[in-house]
Design goal:
With 420 residues, the chain is an alpha+beta fold. Helix content is 25%, strand content 20%. It is built from 9 helices and 15 strands. The protein has helices at residues 3-25, 32-49, 79-89, 124-128, 208-213, 217-239, 271-279, 298-302, 355-358; strands at residues 142-145, 152-158, 190-196, 198-207, 256-258, 290-293, 305-308, 311-314, 329-330, 333-337, 350-353, 359-363, 368-376, 381-394, 414-417. The strands form 4 sheets. It has a 6-stranded mixed β-sheet with strand order 5-15-11-6-10-9, with helices on one face. Strands 1, 4, 12, 13 and 14 form a 5-stranded mixed β-sheet that branches. The radius of gyration is 31 Å and the shape is elongated.
Length: 420
Amino acid sequence: MYSKHIENIRKLSEKMTAIQAKAMQEGRALTAKEAGWVAECEDAIDAERKHLPANSPLTMQGFGGSRGLPSSSGPFPSLGEQFQAIAKAGIPGGQVDPRLYNAATGLSETVPSDGGFLVQTDFSNEILQASFEVGKLAKLCRRIPISGNSNGIKIPGLDETSRAAGSRHGGVLSYWKDEASQLTASKPKFRQIELSLKKNVSLIYTTDELLQDSTALEAYIRKVAADEIAFQTDDAIVNGTGAGMPLGILNGGALVTISKETGQAADTVILENIVKMWSRMLGSSRSNAVWLINQNVEPQLYTMSLSVGTGGAPVFLPGGGASAAPYMTLFGRPVIPCEQCASLGDAGDIILADFSNGYIMAEKGGIQAAMSIHVKFDYDESVFRFVIRMDGQPVLAAPVTPYKGGSSYTQSHFVTLEAR
């Protein structure tokens, strides 16, 4: 006796789903006419539901918590099944599983590319656990706050590129002299390090309906925006060009690049590379240095060995072998996986760096967050804006020639390995 009403509900639901799916596939919101059609379908479904028993799944939340959208069995039983449904919904002409509407949707509730279908609450923690660690490098640098009325800072730096006699501290010389003989004057030499604040901005729009429907979204937006800015800051510290952004260590004049070994195979890191990199780090910086690596360099480190007679000993692993916990150090200094390092075999895949002495950053107030309901008030949207103003560059303008060793054996705060 209820079959007619159930069939009507199904047809209305399919019509409403088709309207919304068409808008999704075209990457847009519903037009006013389409929104009117959806509203008519919802009203008609509500009218049909009144003829069904109170305990019918079609009168409760059998439609996934959104009016008129049918659901096979409530929320998704697994994250994998929900991802499959999302993938099908994104295929032109594909079927949209009504259960996708059980969770708050993306940055626009109808456009998957602008946030799509957010994962339902049951699985949110599983996704958050896959987050990447960001903001590793900025905290290692020497950081200088900028006052409220300034947009940069000029810092006098010692212009020292050689430790040879008469060049230390840029030109200071002391010497042994006989009594009553004439003295020779000397003086230090300085250069000016200028940091002018650059701006890194993240701008995110979201509909007011979504903010109301998803109570955790605002906190999530603030977190991901801060993570993105932290990622870009770390990337600039390593790879920055200095044009509109900080100058990175790989593009700075102080970088020392170690040549590969004769006959060294492509896409390898061997012990000789590590030893030579360590030998070119300034002696005063060794206690603060860290090794940055792309994670695809790790297998090279774990299989690295030192020949001892007819046998050998591991370089990177503790004496207990791979079954024991690795120390994650080389020459006693931490090894830090870093997304911003180049891929294995490219220059910059492994870097020995002393940020605390070798890289200086100026920043003004950290990340500034603001929200406005006025920018797109007539669209019923809110906008989040996140801004950081900072700059940075290596302290040294060029590698330092040691007192003894010659200009071919320069040293620096930053050492890398050439492409292989």
